[in-house]
Amino acid sequence: MQKLFNWLDKYLLEVGVGLLLFLIPLYPKLPLIDVPNTWVYVRFEDVIVAAVVGIWLIQLLRRQVSLKVPLAIPIFIYWLIGGISLLFSLVFLRAHLANFFPHVAVLHYLRRIEYLIVFFIAASSIKNLERVKTYLVVIALALVGVCFYGLGQKFLGFPAFLTMNEEFAKGIPFYLPPTARISSTFAGHYDLAAYLVLIIALFGSLIFGLKKWLSRILLFILIFTSFIMLLLTASRISFLAYLLAISFVLYLQKKKWLIIPVILVSFFLMNFVTGASDRFGKTFRVERVVYDVRTGKPIAAEAPAPGEPEETLPLGTGFLAIPVIETTPPEATQVAVIRKSLKTATMSSEIATISGEFLIRRTIVYDISFTTRFQGTWPRALNAYRRNPLLGTGYSSINLGTDNSYLRALGETGLLGFLAFLGLFFSLGLLVKQALTKMKAPFGRSILIGMFAGTLGLMLNAILIDVFEASKVAFVFWGFWGIAAGMVNYYLPKRRSLLKEAMAVVKLPIVPILILAFVAPLVLGYSLENYFVADDFTWLRWAATARLSDLPQFFLNANNFFYRPLAKVYFFLVSPVFGMRPSPYHLLDFFLHFGCVLAVYFLVIRLTKKRFISLLTALLFLIHPLNGESVFWISSTSALMAAFFYLWGFLAYVFWRSSRKRWRPLLFLATVLAFVLGLASHERMITFPLALILYDFVFGHLKKTKQGIKKLVPYLPFWALTALYLWLRNVVAQAHVFSGDYSYNLLSFPFNFVGNLIGYTGEMIASFHFLPYYDLARALLRANKSIALIFLLAGIGFFVSLLAKKKLLRRLGEKKLLLFSFGWFVVLLLPFLGFGNIAERHVYPAHFGLLLLMALFINWIYEKLKKQHHLLALIIALVIVGGVLGFYRLEMEKAKQEWQRAGEINNQVLLALGSNYAEFPLKSTLYFINLPIRYGRAWVFPVGLEDGIWFIYRDETLTINRATDLEETLGLIEGKPNSYVFIYEGGELKEVKK
Length: 994
Description:
By secondary structure, this protein is an alpha+beta fold. It has 4 domains: 2-278 and 382-506, no CATH class; 284-366, no CATH class; 510-894, no CATH class; 917-992, no CATH class. 62% of the residues lie in helices and 6% in strands. It is built from 37 helices and 14 strands. Strands 3, 4, 5, 7 and 8 form a 5-stranded antiparallel β-sheet that branches. Strands 6-14-13-9-12 form a 5-stranded mixed β-sheet, with helices on both faces. It has a two-stranded antiparallel sheet with strand order 1-2. Helix 6 packs antiparallel against helix 13 (442-461) and helix 23 runs antiparallel to helix 24. It is globular and about 105 Å long. The termini are far apart. The model is unreliable at 291-297 and 301-364 (pLDDT under 50).
């Protein structure tokens, strides 16, 4: 008996881990204990895990196992943040969340602990290499059982036990039809497919780590069977995840020549498996879809021509660019309320046929699988994140599934939980990097390579599936990684800590770029759905009516419009593709803005050689709220294009000044090309030669050239191109000239120059909160020019006195970056400082100069304090950085909401007309009263109303008028046929009838 106790004491934990690895994949998800308010159950796998955890805890108390395993700290941080998020939702959000049940939220949190505790158990059970081999044999046997049962479902009628809805989750056997996707012992075909992706990568890599050919052959047969099983699941995302994983396996195993053959064979085999290739073909397809003109809702697919295959559109099928209009009956009152749109919608990009009350469009159709994500689960998760960006709205608050593990973490646990979740995978990557650097044994290396590649596959899978929350997959995944981590402990007992590995990785040049790429979609991403506003319709109408033969005229005739030929070419080319869907236009603006952010980062790193200053400047440039008008307004695409060429062209010039001879011609040519493209995009590019001179003057490049004539040579092409541009713009094309407040007045120029400079500086620092004070001061000084003159002269005198101090000049001469930063701000604003008003779009990208000054100032504070106390300096610097970034982040959020609401107003107005009037009589006149010009700082309908209405009716005889007085307008139309008056009040467009 004593021998038995000794054996159990030595091997009981190993037996428990083996049972977990074997039973969890094989035992069906049969319910044991019901959890109220959800169809989640306590199951047999939970009992097994609890028993093994009990054994592990006893051994932990007896110090036979240890918590000193890789990933311990990242896992504890993940649990801690999840607990804080749970507590916050229970205390503060509970009463404000629909269908939120505290006991379910606690259960979901405990499940996260349950999944990851398996990692500790498996890792601490590894005492030698033989245990790793034993576990692999158990994993292989479990896989044999999974494949056998899955093939039995397909060919022998074995039942499936699914959890995809409340009835299935009760454990009722479900017999699959011959064409169904198999799930084997898993709760659904997606879970099975994810498991197979991981197992194929692991065993596919292990083949290269085994010496015996018989073992390799048996393993290959098992892998091939698993791949056939994967195809029978017909999971598209898992097939792509498999291709990614197996390609990484072959790459890391130095078998690159096998990658292409394996991919080709995989596609070849997919064509022979019923359902797999068909599902790929139906993901996106073009159909002729019939719509009801009155509501804009899709009715059905057009009947196919004789001989063509019929394609049904299942309930829930999604359509790209479909207007969804919900209407209410008109009220029979003196003021008839026009039926209004309750949802933001987009208009059709291509009208092929109009017949009676129906309209037929060629439309891109995507299936129900994507529809549930795009229109349901993903927006729900994003809304939860917006509600509480830092900690989310708590576990289970966004329903049982999100179909995206990352968005689920973001919505449930906020940004902190999301970063902690990603931190787990980052730590796994660090562990693999460290181990592969030092481990030489092929067996151990193959396991790590397989797990790393499989993890990459699952991370791709997690974009469309809650794969890391699926219990069978999560238990297996963290159990496998526990074995791998325990093996690393065995091979490398004295390895370097993961924290030091992380610090080494953080210093890599790519990390700041990845940080910027991570932050950008979080800050700007969900603005992509904003509808068109104001001038957007003017650009789109112009593009819709232009012809290919007009292309030369874009450069020679501005038609009394702005001279922006490159922007015209852009809209002309993309309009037939994007149509009236705003998202693609916004997406390009997003990439242009992000391209400017990257240029700012590279420029600052070139000037300062300091990554902190560079990253901080780029982050400020990315999120500053004054970007709203430039980034969220499609009409500003031309200005964004010019800013993009401005920054990258300037960066090329900076490199040209310090590069080797063989690269100098190419860099200078790139600078000239950027200047030409920028001039063709927007008039702000005209200051580019001055910016080059500023850089050369501040950083001493002019002094290096002794002969005076040689100093001018680099600038000659730019001045020549500037003269050519002005001639083309003003003489040949006769472009639109500035007027009103956006024009020059010689008498007011000095006052406007100083006033606007102060205004833009104040806006840059205090955001839009500065505007009321600025507007008040400007109004007072405009009314009292003598006082304004005194202030102006006093300011000039103070500035001259500062310049007269030689000591100050010497100090400033040492601070070249300060001079350059302020000079950049002034030079790029020169075309706009003389105007009678300020506009946020004019400050982009001039604000780069002031943002660099902010970053330099924060760094100066840190450097000063660091000499006295390093930790205190670091804390103060982080507080300042967090405060500044947090303030601008909140202001940017406000700007985003204003532009979103402005688009909604535009959409409501236009769809209200379209859903109530199929057409107007020829030569009708429409009057609009009280249409908002702005919503906050966002434009609504200052212009563009006529062009927006044109897209609905395509009627050139319609006359659109704006009015302010209702009674006067009603008097004007009396006795005039075909006249209609509309008033916007209470958030609705109403028709006014006498």
